[in-house]
Amino acid sequence: MLIPLASQAQEPQSPEQKAFYLFMSGKVSAQTNKQFYPVESFDGKRLNLDGYNRALKPTKSLNCTLSPLMVISPFYTEIRDLEYSFDSNAEKFRTMMVINEMSAEQMRFEAGNEFEKAVANLGGQGDSVPFTQQDIDNIELDELTKEQKEAELLKSGLNKLIDSIYVRCTLVPDRSVENAFAAAVIRIEAMGDSDNRVSFVRIAPIGTLEAGIGKPIKFDCSFPELRAGDADIDLFLFDGDGKHIATNRSRGLKKLTTEELEEFRNLDKKAKSKSLG
């Protein structure tokens, strides 16, 4: 298997002065006009794609793919305090509509009571109208706060519908990086079926990272709404030139010895020679 070496690995600098890491990363492609194009670089605002003549803005719903790739790179960044949560903006909207309808029903109920009181004050002797269970529920619901109403409505499992993810963490690089960006691989397991999993890849701009200085970041991504039983996320980091950045969360992460690095360099040279014929 060909293992790409980051271009910095070819610098005339002794291996003792620089650490190199072997890890699982990936080649990111972004979709535009119903086709996927490999991401070449990021200028801090827009993505430059191989084979596409226009720069592309990395929106939170931009459809992307990531092809797994073992790489070697001198870049390393520690991901600290990674937190993420899933939510459904569509479900929030539906919940809001239900609450509004309940509020309207309560107003109609109160208007009916006011009418009965008015009739009684005029001397009416009609039979009193008994409370229904729905009336009692409306009264109890009206005493709840907006947050409590939402919680009551979500108890039935509606919170398992998700269409967005909110991510926050702190990045601490071992060297400065310009125009960094992340590829977030979101894996979702269908409710009640652990074998049924779907994945979405989204790009999040990070910006400039300064060596040894922690940078808090947060971003959100959206995807088609679905009912989930479980979900998680992997983050892959890149610099503005598209070079891979190892992290403490990288799969297969291994810090290479001088001998191992030299061996991989030789393998890389042989592979390139064969490809040239």
Brief description of this entry?
The protein is an alpha+beta fold. The protein is built from 4 helices and 11 strands. About 6% of the residues have low confidence.
Shape descriptor reads elongated
* Quaternary structure of the protein: single chain
Query: What count of helical segments does DSSP give?
Result: 4
Q: How many individual domains?
A: 2
Q: What is the element string, with H for helices and E for strands?
A: EEEEEHHHEEEEEEH
Radius of gyration: 28 Å
Residues in helices, as a percent range: 25-40%
Query: For the report, how would you describe the main beta sheet?
Result: 6 strands, mixed
Q: Pairing-aware structural class of the strands and helices?
A: alpha+beta
Strand content: 35-45%
The number of distinct β-strands equals 11
Weakly predicted, low-confidence segments: 7-16, 152-159
Give the end-to-end Cα distance, rounded to a whole number of Å: 17 Å
Description:
The structure is a single chain. This protein is α+β, with helices and mostly antiparallel strands. It folds into two domains: about 200 residues, no CATH class; about 60 residues, no CATH class. It has four helices and eleven strands; from the N terminus they run βββββαααββββββα. Strands 5, 6, 7, 8, 9 and 10 form a six-stranded mixed sheet that branches. Strands 1, 2, 3, 4 and 11 form a five-stranded antiparallel sheet that branches. β1 and β2 form a beta hairpin. α1 crosses α2. The protein is elongated, with a radius of gyration of 28 Å. The protein starts with 20 loop residues before the first strand and ends with a helix.
